[in-house]
Write a structure and sequence with these properties.
The protein is an alpha+beta fold and 641 residues long. It folds into 5 domains: 2-139, PAS domain (Beta-Lactamase); 163-272, PAS domain (Beta-Lactamase); 291-389, PAS domain (Beta-Lactamase, 2-Layer Sandwich); 395-478; 489-626, Heat Shock Protein 90. The protein has a 5-stranded antiparallel sheet with strand order 2-1-5-4-3, sandwiched between helices. The chain has a 5-stranded antiparallel sheet with strand order 7-6-10-9-8, with helices on both faces. A 5-stranded antiparallel sheet has the order 12-11-15-14-13, with helices on both faces. The longest helix is centred in the middle third of the chain and has 59 residues, at 391-449. It is rod-shaped, with a radius of gyration of 62 Å.
Length: 641
């Protein structure tokens, strides 16, 4: 208990002593009030480095940053453990030197760095330094701002130095205030310093047209900001480059222009590309304007974007006449039904691939023309339509078709007349000449029977026999000529019988094996039967003359409404040049005979394997019929064995 009372007494004595020390250091009430009213945080330490007081601003500052304020009576390093050994040395310097000391200190509280400027002021008492007042100026915010500014300057300096575009500041009278390396390189200088040293009048030395700088200055005056101002500059070697300028005028508070600043971009390559594109465009449109056919260019909405001179020449319409597709359709196709047909055609058939169609167009002057259109889509959705007037061509084609029909009609007539004449001649030869020869033969036979003496009779018999042989030979020749001109069997017994006779005669005359497959009878008009017979006759003649074959197969039949004749040999085979040779009159004749009946003929050959002639003629009830019950019965009188 006694020890406890002694400790309390000792504590009271220490507090009293401390108060006396503080009172002594304060000097006066005015000094204390001045200390407490300092705008910056401050604390007081004695010569033993113990904190004995602090002002209200220190208390608030400590609370703000999380620095404890329970420091009265504590040793300086314990009160502020973040202080360094150098800080204690500074206090010693003040205590020993009687001079105020300003230093910068950095410390960390709560993970944040704080920067301060401290003034250590000696407190004098009785001629010696009794303590130190430490006034703290928290410059953390300023330091952080300075650091941010330094980093920003480094960042923007790097951007400025490494920018691809040129960056500049110039005076009103045309001197550079600053320029980045890109601008210097743009104008052929090794560095901004070289360019700024050599160029003292930008308008006169660098602008290809000094008036352009005057224009730019006027724009600055009027608008402050200028974007995309394009002009030509001279480089260091006096070559020209195209530059695009984006800039602004820097002004004073009273609105006076102080300087110009902005960016410059080298657009020389772009300008060259634009010029090349312009020239190509001019060439392209020159070609379009002078093209020998009409041209429309229209967008997906149907608006007409371009129309060349030939289009106006053909139709009479100009751009103002047909600004939209619907206007064109209404004027060019006044018939609603026909117009719908045209519209549907374009709607469903225009594609990236070209399509060709021909329509009849009503022109501006009221005339109608047949116009052939060729239209296709572009990648951007627009469509190009090219067209030409084919009215005269179509008239010529119609005339040509008419002429061909007339020629075919004439050919058919000539062939009919020829066949009739052959029939007449064959009949006269057969009837008149044949009968005369028969009468001669009969008279000679009578003479033979009535001969006189034996010696004279033998001589006369020999001569008569010779004359009879000559008459027989003449009769055979007359029959053959008559048959060649027009076989009477064709008129008397029909096509199948005539074909059978022709095959037998051909085999007998040439020795070539010849087979035939045909129905017993086919009933068709005489002109069609004649055409098929003559085609077979010409085919067999070609086999004899050219094929070098020893076997021929002939098929005559009806197949799916078509009369078919097939002649196949095993000869050397016809070649394409022989088929298409315009001097192959036999083949041309066969083609013409088939075309008269809207049929077709196909001639093919394989080298070393022979030639095949295939004829197909449409077969209807009006043109003929095959006898029912025998159309699959083939003639067995001729075979290929």
């Amino acid at each position: 208990m006694k020890d406890e009372n002694r400790s309390k007494r000792q504590l009271i004595d220490e507090l009293v002593n401390l108060r006396e020390q503080v009172a002594g250091l304060k000097g006066s009430e005015n000094d204390f009030m001045a200390f407490n009213s300092l705008a910056d945080p401050a604390y007081l330490t004695d010569s033993d480095f113990q904190v004995i007081s602090f002002n209200d601003r220190f208390r608030m500052w400590g609370e703000e940053i999380g620095l404890g304020t329970d420091v009265i009576g504590r040793d300086l390093l314990k009160a502020f453990p973040f202080l360094s050994k150098e800080a204690l040395d500074q206090y010693r310097q003040v205590l020993n030197g009687e001079k105020a000391l300003v230093t910068g200190e950095t410390f960390t509280v709560g993970g944040r760095d704080y920067f301060t400027e401290t003034r250590k002021i000696p407190v004098m008492k009785g001629g010696y330094v009794a303590g130190v007042i430490t006034v703290i100026k928290d410059v953390t915010t300023r330091k952080e701002a300075e650091e941010a500014l330094r980093k920003a300057e480094q960042k923007y300096r790097a951007i400025y130095e490494n920018a691809v575009e040129g960056i500049f500041q110039t005076t009103i009278d045309g001197r550079y205030i600053s320029a980045n390396p890109a601008l210097a390189r743009m104008f052929g200088y090794s560095s901004p310093e070289e360019m700024m040293g050599l160029v003292n009048d930008i308008g006169r030395q660098q602008y290809a047209d000094p008036e352009d700088r005057a224009t730019l200055q006027r724009l600055y005056e009027e608008n402050d900001h200028v974007e995309g101002f394009e002009t030509q500059f001279y480089t260091k070697d006096r070559s020209k480059v195209w530059i695009s300028i984006n800039g602004r005028a820097g002004r004073s508070t009273d609105g006076q222009v102080l300087y110009y600043e902005g960016t410059a971009e080298d657009i020389t390559d772009r300008k060259k590309a634009e010029e090349q594109l312009y020239q190509e465009r001019e060439t392209f449109f020159s070609i379009l304007h002078n093209a020998p056919y009409g041209i429309f260019l229209h967008d997906p909405a149907g608006n007409l974007l371009f129309l060349n001179a030939e289009a106006t020449h053909i139709t009479g319409y100009a751009m103002e006449d047909i600004p939209k597709g619907r206007t064109w359709f209404a004027k060019a196709y006044p018939d609603p039904k026909y117009g719908k047909l045209v519209i549907d055609t374009w709607k469903y058939r225009v594609s990236p691939k070209s399509i060709d169609r021909t329509f009849t167009v009503r022109c501006k002057d009221g005339t109608s023309k047949d116009i052939e259109f060729r239209s296709f889509k572009l990648m951007d959705g627009k469509a190009v339509t090219m067209f030409q007037d084919v009215t005269q061509r179509r008239l010529a084609e119609a005339e040509l078709r008419k002429s061909r029909e007339e020629l075919r009609t004439l050919t058919a007539h000539i062939q009919s007349v020829r066949e009739k004449e052959r029939t007449r001649i064959a009949r006269e030869i057969h009837d008149e000449l044949g009968q005369a020869l028969t009468c001669i033969k009969m008279d000679l036979s009578e003479i033979k029977e009535e001969c006189g003496p034996a010696s004279d009779r033998n001589t006369l018999l020999s001569k008569t026999r010779s004359l009879l042989e000559l008459v027989d030979s003449t009769i055979d020749v007359v029959r053959r000529i008559a048959a060649d001109l027009r076989p009477s069997i064709l008129d008397d017994l029909g096509l199948v019988a005539a074909v059978q006779w022709l095959v037998q005669d051909y085999r007998k005359r040439t020795g070539i094996r010849c087979g035939l497959k045909a129905p017993d009878s086919i009933l068709i008009p005489k002109d069609m039967a004649t055409a098929v017979f003559r085609i077979l006759q010409e085919s067999l003649t070609n086999v004899t003359r050219h094929a070098k074959a020893d076997k021929v197969e002939i098929t005559l039949r009806k197949k799916k409404g078509t009369l078919t004749l097939k002649v196949k040999d095993n000869g050397k085979g016809i070649i394409e040049s022989e088929i298409s040779n315009p001097r192959s009159f036999g083949i041309l004749g066969m083609r013409e005979r088939v075309l008269l009946f809207q049929g077709k003929i196909d001639i093919t050959g394989t080298s070393g394997k022979g030639t095949t002639v295939m004829v197909e003629i449409p077969f209807t009830r009006k043109t003929g019929k095959i006898m029912r019950g025998v159309e699959n019965t083939y003639d067995q009188s001729v075979d290929c064995r």
